[in-house]
Design goal:
The chain is an alpha/beta fold. The chain has 14 helices and 15 strands. Strands 14-13-12-11-7-10-9-8-15 form a nine-stranded mixed β-sheet. It has a six-stranded parallel β-sheet with strand order 3-2-1-4-5-6, sandwiched between helices. The protein starts with a strand and ends in a 7-residue tail after the last helix.
Length: about 425
């Protein structure tokens, strides 16, 4: 097995905890040979974790991509609005690319990246990790085999989790559309991609409703303060308490995303000084906290999608209704039931895999590296290539446009023609 060398652009949560972690766990498969990251503390962590020297560290993607090609692949895990520049330059330089989702918050940039990967014959894989999970792969196999006949309709729900909602989309980096992406794109392009993959037809039109219902200043409880640690009278009762979510959780499941210093003092200081100690009702956030999307595909197939930040857990549930049977699934439990019409229900076994997104994180990297070793080029060979991902992104753009226009139907063909359109 040939070891693939990589430059990592963006050493934040996904960069370190997914792609960097894969390189450390499987050094025979991948070696990170350079890191571009503007935050000095993260650069020093990367230096230690990947055994780099100072001359392998860069402040920006412009610096590392100004050099002759330094590795086989470029992993781009920077913020949403910092994907297009490094991706286009890396393609030009001859890198195969693994790109964090979403590709871009601008439709024109999404289309440009797909075109560039095709014209330069470079792999550009997008991190739609759900396709690489045993759960969704098994469901896809069942559909392809014809067990439920032709798909008539699909219902998919993404339960974001109240604590995840508060962390990422109220207090965190994706709380404002102007600074990142609409939530339907940032969080749920995964789901648009899964629907597109399962139905395997072209999406024609989309309508959507949603709003920022709860996390608003007027909903702040009486006695609350601007920060959870400023003497808030209801902090002990509040499910969104930063003290409860970060300081009192000994597993550091979420505190590792707010500071690199996981000592009690480090977490305490982060809550006192940083954005994650703010009251969820006073965060200047503007993305939705719930949204529904209706879609029509070729030949009349329909799909509905519900995303909500108000759920007790982080999970996805799906119901796929075909002309000869039905599939129901609960991703986080790896539970799939097949209901063939006129026959007994069948429990479908799924081999659970460890790791983020039900094993999809590792599956994505593993399959991408395999394609790089095979030398496949042209942008169309990977399961989640840029060419494939354009449709799911356009579906998300159309959903947000519809929501902003009061739920009117938006044609995907119209969206595709607007090469410079963006959703703000």
């Amino acid at each position: 097995m040939r070891q693939i060398t990589a430059i990592l652009i963006g050493a934040g949560a996904r960069g370190r905890f997914v792609y960097g972690a894969y390189a450390m766990k499987h050094p025979e498969e991948m070696k990170i040979v350079a890191v571009a990251e503007p935050d000095e503390e993260r650069r020093m962590l990367a230096k230690a974790e990947y055994g780099l020297s100072f001359d392998q560290l860069y402040d920006s993607w412009e610096q590392v991509l100004a050099l002759p090609q330094a590795a086989d692949i470029a992993i781009i895990a920077s913020h949403d609005r910092m994907h297009y520049g490094p991706a286009m330059k890396a393609i030009e330089k001859g890198y195969d690319i693994l790109l964090e989702k979403p590709m871009s918050p601008f439709a024109g940039e999404v289309i440009d990246m797909a075109r560039a990967s095709r014209e330069h014959k470079r792999l550009l894989a997008v991190s739609h990790v759900l396709r690489y999970t045993p759960f969704w792969s098994r469901i896809k196999e069942m559909i392809t085999s014809g067990e439920i006949g032709e798909i008539a309709s699909v219902q998919l729900s993404e339960n974001v989790g109240y604590f995840h909602m508060a962390h990422s989309f109220v207090r965190g980096s994706w709380s404002r559309t102007e600074e990142a992406s609409p939530m339907i794109l940032q969080k749920s392009c995964h789901d648009m991609d899964i629907l597109s993959w399962l139905i395997d037809k072209r999406c024609l039109k989309v309508s959507s409703y949603g709003s920022l219902l709860h996390f608003r200043p007027e909903n702040a409880p009486q006695g609350s303060t601007l920060r959870c640690m400023d003497g808030c009278a209801v902090e002990r009762e509040c499910p969104y308490s930063a003290v409860r979510i970060y300081e009192e959780d000994e597993t550091h499941e979420w505190s590792r995303f707010i500071t690199n210093d996981l000592t009690p003092k480090g977490i305490h200081n982060a809550l006192h000084e940083g954005p994650f100690g703010r009251c969820v009702y006073h965060c200047q956030n503007d993305v939705v906290d719930h949204q529904v999307v209706n879609m029509e595909f070729e030949n009349g197939t329909t799909a509905s999608f519900t995303m909500s930040g108000f759920s007790h857990d982080i999970s996805r549930t799906v119901q796929i209704m075909g002309t000869r049977g039905e599939i129901r699934g609960y991703m986080e439990r790896n539970e799939i039931m097949l209901y063939p019409f006129g026959k007994e229900a069948v429990h479908i076994p799924v081999d659970a895999e460890a790791g983020g997104h039900g094993g999809g994180d590792e599956g994505l990297v593993r399959e991408f590296l395999r394609e790089v070793r095979k030398g496949n080029k042209g942008g169309g060979q990977t399961l989640t290539s840029a060419e494939v991902s354009v449709q799911s992104h356009l579906m998300a753009f159309a959903a947000e446009q519809s929501r902003l226009e009061g739920g009117s139907s938006v044609m995907i063909t119209d969206m595709s023609a607007q090469k410079t359109c963006s959703v703000r």
